[in-house]
Design brief:
The chain is mainly beta. It is built from 1 helix and 8 strands. About 15% of the residues lie in helices and about 35% in strands. The longest helix has 23 residues, at about 60-80. It is globular, with a radius of gyration of 15 Å.
Length: about 160
């Protein structure tokens, strides 16, 4: 069983913690959380009843959001580790935005089953990281995705 300690999203500064998918400060959002699991990353989510495409199956947009936020969170974990830190170290992690998102739906995703995204991270440029993900419903591989995550400048603000 995976031992979860602190999710990278829990370490994002307040100004960058509002994402509908993974923002801890967005009351209406999914609150996706990404952790290390060995050398791979992991995000687990239990779809809610309203995440229905057709009765019994999860809406594909939720799967896309899971791949998206898992990808940017995984890139943040990887660069944070490369910089010599882990979640909980007290150092704010880098924040990423999505440069590209690709999702292949392999099988219909059943409702009422916990989803797990497993990611592999690869640095492709000092400011760009590629994360490939597999999304499982229980033991069934339902989707594969790829995110190109881009480092958000530390000076970014919407004010």
């Amino acid at each position: 069983m995976t031992e979860h300690k602190i999710a990278i999203q829990d370490e994002y500064p307040d100004d960058f913690a509002w994402c509908y998918g993974c923002g801890r400060l967005n009351e209406e959002g999914y609150h996706l959380k990404t952790y290390w699991n060995g050398e791979q990353t992991e995000t687990i989510y239990q779809p809610r009843e309203e995440h229905t495409a057709i009765p019994g199956f999860v809406y594909g947009g939720l799967i896309g959001a899971l791949v998206d936020c898992h990808g940017t969170g995984s890139a943040s974990l990887a660069l944070h580790r490369k910089n010599g830190f882990e979640p909980g170290s007290g150092e704010a992690p880098p924040r990423f935005v999505t440069g590209s998102l690709h999702v292949d739906f392999l099988k219909p995703t059943p409702q009422k089953v916990e989803l797990k995204a497993i990611g592999t991270v690869e640095e492709i440029h000092p400011k760009k990281w590629k994360v490939t993900s597999e999304v499982f419903a229980g033991d069934v591989l339902c989707a594969k995705g790829e995110v190109i995550a881009v480092v958000m400048p530390a000076t970014f603000t919407n004010k």
